[in-house]
Fold this protein.
Amino acid sequence: MTTNNDSFVPANYEPPTTGGNYMKFADGENQFRILSKPILGWMDWKDKKPLRFAIGEKPAAPIDPAKPVRHFWAMKVYNYATKTMQVLEITQATIQEAITAYSRDPQWGNPFKYDFKIIRKGVKMDTEYQVLGMPPRELGAEARAAFVKTPIHLEALYIGGDPFAVPGAAQPVKQAPPPPPPPVAQVTYTPAIPPTDDMPF
């Protein structure tokens, strides 16, 4: 005989969320607030590592013919599940088109003013995404604090660098479109930290 107290896991149990600096869409609902304009470009792969190129520097051909070069967005977001600032990289055209449509709709406008909820269903080639804009609301204090204390320099992605690196830290030199890729050297990457006036809220 079982009772309500005999559940396999506690009633208030929730699986732990995965942290990290990059937001990945999990199965089900994924809610976030966009807090920067996206950088745009092209993504290729070499030795299972991404190579990113600016929008006007699309490689003539992919390194691996089986993996076509893909258009990508990368932007700063506040992830409500992890309660942290992360980089969201989007290569799915359906998601890019949906967010673009919201931003151009006069009734919605700038996505800095409202959250997005993306619902993921399915696996591998059968994965589907539903993009929902949430009612506009002021960004919460916790998200504001996370934005202020977490500088992110998206342009570092173009040179294979870490957008979360401390300004002045060594970053690799950007690789030109193959073939052949140039040798990777070390240079000092010193991005300018945006002034407070540039905050999107």
